[in-house]
């Protein structure tokens, strides 16, 4: 099908609002603005050395990780693009220690936006896939001034979640609770065009993604599952598995949405008291909503991620997500070990 016969993101959103009654107008406008910000990030990322945007910024984020120039730039791009729209009360990001309240010079709305502006940023200097992840929450009706507490909502309360992936093509993958849909950026038109509808993750898989260099730090149930995966047809799982690791969650989840698989970032003992590496509110929650909407599953080894009550903005969580059968298997190993 040619681009002219396909649906634009704007038309998809208007139909969701009018025909399916699945979103109010202010949420539709907010998603349009987020999509525009992702388009802008895509162009910045693609410039690379031409615009001198590669390398470290010389600063650390709140988690003590060295920020890339593009981490800082894309965070600012996202803030500027979203602050004036009138649909948000506040934003929170991987790159900011505190929440960002919409300044009084702009009208304020009812939504909260949580995002990771550049996931997988260590890939950027080597020209490998990166992405932007976002989650939209409704501000609790009872609150007047926004506080951290307003953001501490379980993932199952998200009203929309999505990511943009900056790879050979730029794509926006979105859910507003009625399936998962993908839009490809037509760089000639400057428009997002729907290219996949109702994406589905196969229930079974023979592909996994994990950073196995951390094996010695993992807990016993994780080591057991990994040993079984690599034993292949000679082990208890009785089939051979393939492994992939892009080191950008966006890319792993995108692969899983397209052909199945399981993505894991388990708890490890490198930093005692820290549950895994990934952040609950702007990585695990939006990706879990997408994965579940596509028929997959997502747990922290014990609990469904979307049921976890957040207690801080930048808290971390262990992540097992993707094809249902494998997520259920590794979760059952963790539950057995807990008993
Ligand atoms: P960065 O955005 O700091 O590069 O981190 C990306 C990430 O949080 C996630 O997207 C990857 O799955 C994971 O880290 C990769 O971690 P390793 O460094 O262990 O490969």
Automatic annotation (TrEMBL):
Enzyme Commission number(s): 3.1.3.11
Domain Fructose-1-6-bisphosphatase class I N-terminal positions: 8-197
Keyword Hydrolase: yes
Entry's Gene Ontology cellular component terms: cytosol
Domain Fructose-1-6-bisphosphatase class 1 C-terminal: 201-334
Catalysed reactions listed for this entry: beta-D-fructose 1,6-bisphosphate + H2O = beta-D-fructose 6-phosphate + phosphate
Pfam families in the record: FBPase, FBPase_C
Cofactor note: Binds 2 magnesium ions per subunit.
InterPro entries: FBPase_C_dom (IPR044015), FBPase_class-1 (IPR000146), FBPase_N (IPR033391), FBPtase (IPR028343)
Keyword presence, Manganese: no
Binding site for Mg(2+) 1: 94, 116, 118
Predominant localisation class: cytoplasm
Subunit structure: Homotetramer.
Stated name of the protein: Fructose-1,6-bisphosphatase class 1
Organism listed in the record: Hydromonas duriensis
